[in-house]
Amino acid sequence: MRGAAAIVCALMLGSLSFSPLGEKVAEGRMRGGVAPITAESFHPPPGGPHPTSLREATFSRKREKESLTSPRPTEIVYDRNGAFITQINHGQDYGYWPLDKVPQRFALATLALEDRRFFAHGGVDLRAILRATWNNLFRRHAREGASTIAMQVARLQNPGPRSFAQKLQEAATAVALISRYGHEAVLKQYLTLAPYGAGSHGAAHAARFYFNKPLDDLSWAETALLAALPQAPGAMNLARPSGMRRAAMRAARAIDALVREDQIQPAQAALAKAQLAAMKPLILPRRGEGALHLALRYDRLVRDGLIVASPSDPRIHASIDLKLEERIAGLAARYLNVFRDAGARQVAVMIAERGSNAVLAEVGSARYGGGLAEAGAFDFTRVTRSPGSTLKPFVYALAFERGMLNASDMLADVPEGASGVGNADGLYLGPLSPRQALANSRNVPAANLLRQVGIEASFHFLHDLGLHEIEAPADAFGVSMAIGSLPTKLDRLLRAYAMLADDGVLSDLSYAREQRRAPQRRALSVETARLITSFLSDPQARLPTFPRYGPLEYPFAVAVKTGTSQGYRDAWTLAYSKKYVVGVWLGRADASGMREIGGAGSSARLAHAVLTYLHGVKPGEIADDAFDPPPGRVAAEISAGAQGVIREWVKPGEAPRAAALAGGETELKIATPEPDTHVWRNPERPASLNKLALKLKPLAGEAQVVWYVDDEPFVTAEADETVFWPLRPGAHRIEARLVYSKSHSQGVRVVVE
């Protein structure tokens, strides 16, 4: 009975005393990150047995406690240069890595401090219990515990209150674990789960977290230092001078014990103790505030199963360059401040490496946090917004792919009342080549082209490019898809423009070496992709809408497209060189308008600063490079109406199919509106602007015509003049008649709603 009482007393006293540091150490140990690791964190096997009685439930819980369980590994994300970005804990408040095998050096240091007779007992060390009982009852020094490695494993897996009953349960579980799994497996489990402070559990995770090394590569000093921590990880905080001193002193005792047991040579021991004495507090890995959006991006990618690290080495090798990220964040903040007086409040920037699509930098907002007005917690690279004119290149690309457009064709940039589409500047440039129409970002030609290709076809093509996942009918957006009615996100736009840069090959953006990416696929022909690139990189073709030597022009080859949403709510710029693809968004979190800030005058300036920084171009330098020409095409000079002659890449023998806009005809033909046009009046526009443009195809020579609406004369005008008829609801017939002649055009039916 006295022996049993002694055991009970030792267990009780041992459960209340951890180390010579007493109560403060116990408190520090709790602060050091000893978090519950329970079997409830894991799902039972599908179809597994379920307890059907109290006895079976009790037996199931008992078996659960007597099993070796562990949580899901926590991935650590490093940038492309090895700098810490974040750790993904899967709902735990600590980091954990599994252990492939028991590392001999680390095991020796641990046993020297925690359980020297580990392989000599069956889970409960009676000799240690008797010694602890004697010392705790009759000696006046700090209380001594008698918990073995196996008992600590039992407590780590099923923590509970420090009571006599809990201690007995831990002892019983420890014996069962040793009996079932053996000493080495239990030791491995301890080294896998033990707390090492700063939210790190397990020796493998601690080695990587503190020293960024594999466990086997630690020196004797580093090994002993980590082995010392589980006794009181809070009190031995390696980031603090006092914590480092305590840990180094205990590590030195481990080295001395290993010398006495002939496990380490005296020379090695002397070196290790000298290194311990010289150790300074460590700078622990810490996620910067600026990288929080990145951390959330990687967390989502891992949770969605798109990034899968090795279970035995859960490192994620990110494509991000944190130093570049910081530089771009600084540029973004600086340029945002320039436009704050005009109402801009937020900014987002993305950079991808051309060809690999590796994301090098991703600035989600000006700064994380801020009030409701700034809403910096939102990642604006993933927020759905109106894209303005940034979808136009894909409308042109689809028309080329379907053979409905030639590079030498002429597109009419004339006043258009249908669907309320007009140019943003209120001006009209007349006949334009596709190169000029896209480079000048004219709304009317783009809307007409989308109508010609087909609203449904364009809607599905944009979906196939990943620009949207909308299930609404295409007619809900109409031809205004070309000018911003179809919402998208910056990361989606960057991927689509990377496709243009990569000669029509569509690839997922790459965030990590371990990322699962969909197979590449061809979305456009090389010919079409390069033709669109040549349009977007031609500064001369942007005239007169965008003056030369502004933010759209670079000292090296760059294809660039800007966009401005209705009401100046969003300002976009997408640009790509031979090396990089850059996307910039500027706007407000509440989607209210800015004061006349367009993409060409705001986001384009930031994109220009980013690309010139990436290329390292110095002022005055001009690179002698250009994008590759479209294969199978030849350079030719073509007539571009009032814009004169331009240089274009055409197919051999290609002839314009819109010659009527440049030459004369004797027969009256109505150019605008088209037959069976359906017009919707825009209620947001003044009545004076709700008009339908009436225009003839060009005639040879001068003439006058009379326009008739519903067989009633409306106005007399020159044959080459555009007139405007005020919209009236209902079905109408429009006709043109030559003055002093019987010649007249075919009637055109128009329905106005």
Produce a short descriptive summary.
The protein is of the alpha+beta class and 753 residues long. Helix content is 33%, strand content 15%. Helix 4 (104-114) crosses helix 10 (220-228).
Report on the architecture of this protein.
There is one protein chain. This protein is of the alpha+beta class. The strands form 8 sheets. Strands 7-6-14-13-12 form a 5-stranded antiparallel beta sheet, with helices on both faces. The longest helix is centred in the first third of the chain and has 20 residues, at 241-260. It contains 21 helices and 24 strands. Strand 13 and strand 14 (580-587) form a beta hairpin. Helices cover 33% and strands 15% of the residues. It folds into 3 domains: 2-278, Biosynthetic peptidoglycan transglycosylase-like (Penicillin binding protein transpeptidase fold), CATH 1.10.3810; 329-637, DD-peptidase/beta-lactamase superfamily (Beta-lactamase, 3-Layer(aba) Sandwich), CATH 3.40.710; 664-752, Immunoglobulin-like (Sandwich).
